[in-house]
# Entry
Amino acid sequence: MDYSPGLRGVIAGETAISTVGMEGTSLRYRGYDAIQLTKKNTYEEVASLIIKDSLDGDEFKEAFSKFYNAAIEDETLSTYIEDLKSLHPPKGIHPMALLRTIVSGGEEMDSDTEIELIARISATVCFAIASYHKSDTNILSDKYLVASSLLPNDVSDEMLEALDDMLILYAEHGFNASTFATRVTASTRADLTGAIVSGIATLKGELHGGANERAVELINSFETLDEAEEGIKALLEEKKKIMGFGHGVYKVQDPRSPIVKSWVERLVNTDFSKNRFEIAQRIDQIMDEEKNLFPNVDFYGGLMLSELGFEVDLFTPIFVAGRSVGWAAHYFEQRQQDTLIRPAAKYIGIEERE
# Structure
C-alpha cells in the first residue's frame, strides 16, 4: 500500500457536495460556480444549496432567525458567554476556544430537520461572535440575514454584502482538514454537535483557518512599501513560510482571492487602510516574482475582515460562521454512507524487543 504524507492525493471518500481545484482553479458547490453564486445569491440560499441541494433559502432563514432571536432573549446564554470571555486574564479566552465550548454545550432536538439542526448551531456561533461588538447586533437584515447577525446594526448595505460574499466563499471546500475531521467524527455515528466541535478544533490551527490571522499580522508589521519588500525578501532567504500564499489543491490561482481583494479595494477609506492595502499588494507582487506563488483566500481575507471592523482574533470564528454549513453537509453525507473511517498507519518504530 502506497504511503502519502498528510494523505496528499489520496481519495479518502466520495462526495456530491463540491469540487475543488478542477483545472487548477475552479470551485463548485453542487455543480454551481461558487464565484457566480456570490454575484447572484445570498449566503442563506447557498447554505440551503450545500445542505439540501436547493437554492431556496427560506427554510434556513426562518430557522436561523428563530434561533438567533432566541439566543438574544436567553439571559443565561449571554451570562455564560460573558463568563467564558473573562477566563484566562488579561487577554481572556480565545474566541475559537469560546466557540468550541459554546457549541459543545448545545442541544439537538430529535424533531429538528437537517436545516434546523445546523441553523441552531450557526445562530449560536454568530451570536457568540456578535457578543464581541460594543454596539448592538439585534436587528437582522431581510436580505443578508447571517451577515447582519455578525455586524452592528448601523453598518452599510455594502459592508453586509461584502461579508455575505465572504461567508459564501468560506461555506464549503471539499475534504480540507476540518471537514475531514468532521467526517471522521460523523463516521463513528456521533451527533452533529460533536462533529462540528471537531471541525472548530481543527480549524483553529494556523496552517488551516488561523492563516488569515497570521497573514494580516504580517501585513500590519510593515509601515512602508520599502520595509515590506525588505522584510519579505529576508523571510524568504530564511526559508520562512509566508502565510496566505499557495494552496494544497489550487495550482494556478485561488478563485476566491480576486473577489476578496476587490472588496478590500472598495472598502478601504482611510490613509492607514490604503497604505496597508498597498503593502499587501507589494507582498503579493514579491511572492509572485520570487516564488511564483499566488495569494489564497486568507491573504486578502484578513484585510477585508479588518475593514469590516473585526479584531484579528475574530477572523477564524468568522470562518466558522461560514463553514459550519459545509461541515454539516459533510456530516449528513457521511452518516448516509455509514462507513467508519479507519486508515492504516505506516509503522516506523523498532520491529521487536525482548
